[in-house]
Amino acid sequence: MREYVERSYRLLHRQQDLVFFQIAVKETDLDIGIPRDKLTTGLVEGVKKEIITLRRQLEQYIAANPVFLHTLEPFEPGPDAPEIARAMAGAAAAAGTGPMSAVAGAFAQNVGSYLARRCREVIVENGGDIYLRSSQTRKIGIFAGPSPFTNRLAIEIEPHRTPLGICTSSGTVGHSLSFGCADAAVILAPSALLADAVATAAANRVQGEDDLQAAVEFAMSIKTVTGALAIKNDNLAAAGAVKLAPM
Question: Which InterPro entries does the protein's record reference (predicted)?
């Protein structure tokens, strides 16, 4: 049985020098960190309008193309598709998954890019998928459900590696569809959409502890993925630019 965990995992990416606020529009529920002096009513309203616009584009496209929503295989949108749908489909095709595997990363990336034009420091988290832009080294804690690594281990991200997507998929925590049993598959890539889709595909490959190494090797075989980490119980495999640190 998969475990639902209240969004206490959001404490794992909080940073003391930033102020965090939340915006929820239907299923899109973002936790956003920016410098305190950048937080204004106008900026919050701008982010909300950005989310609403993106959702409207995606919802209208899905209404006309319901296969986009349901397929678990790569999908090629037509030329009339909005940019968000085409970007999701492209990332998912690289991972060998359906386009909705990139939806959380898509909203994190788009909102993060919107804020990055206004703020030097940005963290946008959407259901465990993160867009990060920073001028200083950051620690992002790892949430791996029942694994003893939860709340004890973090990934250290140096500023020159940002903007960066840091996305997590799990077969034991949360409500997102997964065919695996990984406690966590964490993927790093410049695109949060790609990191999201690859995290789904990597987590799908983990049925037990013996599958961890193959899952991270699969992830690293995908172009532009820079780091991969997979966890099951008290076992861990990592590859690429994954610098682990204690919380």
Answer: ApbE-like_sf (IPR003374), UPF0280 (IPR007183)
Distance between CA atoms of residues 51 and 71, nearest Å: 24
Q: Range of 13's domain?
A: 7-246
Q: Is residue 2 part of a domain?
A: no
State the CB neighbour count (10 A cutoff) for residue 207. 14
In the numeric block, the tokens 């950051």 are attached to 138
Structure tokens at 78: 């037509």
Q: For residue 208, tell me if it sits in a domain.
A: yes
Tell whether the model's pLDDT for residue 175 goes beyond 60: no
In a domain, 224, yes or no: yes
Domain count, the chain: 1
The pLDDT mean for the chain works out to: 92
Residue bearing the bigger pLDDT, 7 or 200? 200
Q: 87-119 as b/e, with b when 16 or more CB fall inside 10 Å? A: bbbbbbbbbbbbbbbbbbbbbbbbbbbbbbeeb
In a domain, 67, yes or no: yes
Q: What is the value of pTM for the model shown?
A: 0.91
Give the domain CATH number at 188.
3.10.520.10
